[in-house]
Amino acid sequence: MPDPHQAVIGGIDCHTDFHVAAALDPLGRVLGTESFPATRAGYRLTHTWLASFGQITTVGVESTGSFGAALTRSLVDQGCRVIEVNQPHPHLRSRRGKNDAIDAEAAARKVLSGEATAAATDTTGIVEAIRQLSVTRNSAVKARAAALCQLGDLLVTAPAALREQLDTRRTLEGKAAVCARLRPDTDRLADPAQAAKAALRSLGRRVAQLGAEADELGRRLDRLVATAAPTTLSRLGCGTHHTAALLVAAGENIDRFGSEASFAHLCAAAPVPASSGRTQRHRLNFAGNRDANRALHMVVIVRLRYCERTRSYRDRRLAEGKTKKEAIRCLKRFVARELYRTLRADLSTLTTRT
């Protein structure tokens, strides 16, 4: 019979419709594997099944920010310590193959060995709301840009009379506003001129609709980000969308980072050792959260334009023999350190302001 006092380490491989769980004892022996539906009842069954082997110490979950987000919230609500686990190493797959049970066991073994130590991101507060609105706004902005590009391409082959009518506006946004007011003859769409008007009118209205949607979501994000991170937002170069990207990368439980160096590594702003033998060097980190890295980069660019202190630092680094790109990388590391501290201060007082 299972020992109720035995420590149990869980590992879960998450999918859209079901999750596969594996249970290990402290010596790494497999106690069992089982599949559960990705529903609220399935999440409760997963916890009950793991607890049937003993006392749950830690659960390693793959895809805590996507397929496993709801399961992670359920496990945390039931008092479990959840660790975020990356996909299994390719060497493991080449030796043992791949299936859901193997992946779940590998997730548990990463937790047991201490290879995976990062707590799962908290998705129950205002930062998760900011992430959802940011994702939606970004998609609207990208779709609007795509519609504008398509409108410009259609104008190249449009009839000359229609192009001359639109030449009164110099920008694509202005031409889109004119196109939205075109009136094609729907009974003569076989005529390329009327079909061009109909297509351009549709694109013009799409641009206007997506622009209004992005503006509305932007206003809502302004309020949420100002509530979550007022100190960070006041720093030079930290607008709403850059601050939102850094908040989403850090998560509301920013204490899961052991230091500001961990946060910089997540943002791909920390150099990675690339030494061997007598060669001592570092290389650029190509992994990490690319949205957060882009936000740091844009903050640095703004400060190079408006901050004398930042320009002096860049000039000093250039005088030492570094390239402009290397100087910017150093500045990104400095900004990551500064904004980690302001984000930590903001999130520590969040409950008193909401």
Key features of this structure:
354 residues; alpha/beta; Nucleotidyltransferase, domain 5; 3 domains; five-stranded mixed β-sheet; two-stranded antiparallel sheet; 58% helix; globular
What does this protein structure show overall?
The model has no long low-confidence stretch (mean pLDDT 89). Helix 11 (260-266) packs across helix 14 and helix 12 (290-306) packs across helix 14 (324-348). It is globular and about 85 Å long. Strand 4 (55-62), helix 2 and strand 5 form a beta-alpha-beta unit. 58% of the residues lie in helices and 11% in strands. It folds into 3 domains: 7-113, 2-Layer Sandwich (Nucleotidyltransferase, domain 5); 126-228, no CATH class; 231-353, no CATH class. It contains 15 helices and 7 strands. The chain is an alpha/beta fold and 354 residues long. The strands form 2 sheets. It has a 5-stranded mixed β-sheet.
